[in-house]
Structure formats: structure tokens, C-alpha cells
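pls design
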């Protein structure tokens, strides 16, 4: 069983308006996932310092951020980062440049988790529906190129899609190529009104379970709740 999760951590600013990175790490430990996609993992302005610096992750968790060709002060690319447990086989990781109205991006990694080859994408799409669809097309195209070089790897896409409708817009584009896990509503943490965060997959894995991680701690740590999915490996 492989467990993945996606979490918009809002730069570690909680619903109580306090910035507490250690609280975010406590939620990550609650999730207990093998791979976690983070959004808004860097400060927005200036040199975009990492919200969860490496030393803090190492001190309070078993997670590490995958290396990316980005400024050393940041842990991600336009706030997107991928966390894995220490000791997992990391084959490659890179950034995706997405068409955008405001700065947006995605990150992609090739991993081997519990003997299974995975291609994982973390993303945070635009507030504009038109730009979300353009960004979805860019992600799909980039992954198809990667898959041509390694067709055996299963693919998991995760992140904050900013899509409020279930069967339209960018989700309709993604669903033509991927299955979408029915995780549930993840925003707003205090009053759940929308399923903005999504986990999608295709390839040699099968969805076993999925949901929203709603605890007393996660309801305070960010304005989004984390979502998660567990996968079985197909024979």
C-alpha cells in the first residue's frame, strides 16, 4: 500500500492567523504519507524563503524535500514542493514552467516507493479558469513526454487545482486521461465548501481509499485541509 497526500499549507499561516511551521509539520506527521505534495511552501515575496526549512523538517519529522533547480532559500518552485520519507529512492526531480497570468509552476519527480516506480507531479493552478485549462494542458503534455521515456511508471498528479466545479474546466481536461480520487471537500478548513485540492492517477496502481484529513490540528494549521489517497499495486 502506498499513501500520498496533498496539502496547501498557506505559508504556515493558520486560521488563527498565526504562522507556525512546527504545527504544519505536526499535521504532516499525522498524515503519515509516503509522498506529500505541498503548495504555498515558500514565502511569497522577496527571496521566497522556505516555510519549512530542511533543518526543521529533519528535527521534527522523517520527511525531506526533494531537491529542485531553484534558489537555495526556497524549498519549492512557485511554492510547490514534494516531500518524501528519508531513505526513499529518488531517481530524478525537476520543475515545470506553466503558462500563467501570475507566477505559477509545477514540480515533477521520478521515485521508487516500496518497489514501485512512480511519476509524481505537484501543482498549484491559477485562479482564472482559462489559465487553469492552459496549465492543465501543459502538465498533461509534459507528463506524456516523460511517459514516452518510461512507460512502466504509474503517474500521480496532486495539488490545489482552484477548480470549484467537479466536471468542468481543468478537471474535465484531466479526467479524459486520469482517474480522480473522491477525496472530498478540503476548503475552507473552518467551513468546507469546495473540493479545490485533487489527487489523480493512471497506470499500474489501483485506488484503495481516499479522504480529507480533518483533525482539530489540521483545522487550525491552514485554510486548506490535507487530502490523501492510498493505492494498491496492480498485479
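designed seq:
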Amino acid at each position: 500500500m502506498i499513501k500520498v497526500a496533498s496539502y496547501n499549507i498557506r505559508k504556515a499561516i493558520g486560521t488563527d492567523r498565526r504562522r507556525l511551521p512546527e504545527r504544519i509539520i505536526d499535521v504532516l506527521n499525522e498524515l503519515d504519507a509516503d509522498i506529500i505534495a505541498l503548495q504555498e511552501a515558500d514565502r511569497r515575496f522577496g527571496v521566497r524563503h522556505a516555510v519549512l526549512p530542511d533543518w526543521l523538517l529533519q528535527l521534527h519529522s522523517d520527511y525531506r524535500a526533494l531537491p529542485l533547480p531553484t534558489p537555495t532559500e526556497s524549498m519549492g518552485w512557485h511554492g510547490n514542493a514534494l516531500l518524501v520519507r528519508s531513505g526513499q529512492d529518488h531517481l530524478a526531480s525537476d520543475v515545470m514552467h506553466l503558462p500563467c497570468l501570475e507566477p505559477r509552476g509545477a514540480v515533477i519527480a521520478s521515485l521508487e516507493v516500496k518497489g514501485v516506480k512512480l511519476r509524481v507531479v505537484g501543482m498549484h493552478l491559477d485562479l482564472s479558469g482559462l489559465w487553469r485549462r492552459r496549465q492543465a494542458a501543459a502538465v498533461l503534455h509534459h507528463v506524456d513526454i516523460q511517459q514516452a521515456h518510461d512507460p512502466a511508471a504509474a503517474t500521480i498528479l496532486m495539488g490545489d487545482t482552484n477548480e470549484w466545479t467537479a466536471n468542468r474546466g481543468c478537471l474535465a481536461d484531466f479526467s479524459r486521461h486520469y482517474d480522480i480520487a473522491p477525496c472530498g471537500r478540503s476548503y475552507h478548513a473552518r467551513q468546507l465548501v469546495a473540493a479545490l485540492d485533487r489527487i489523480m492517477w493512471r497506470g499500474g496502481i489501483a485506488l484503495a481509499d481516499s479522504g480529507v484529513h480533518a483533525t482539530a490540528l489540521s483545522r487550525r494549521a491552514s485554510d486548506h485541509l490535507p487530502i490523501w489517497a492510498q493505492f494498491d499495486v496492480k498485479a
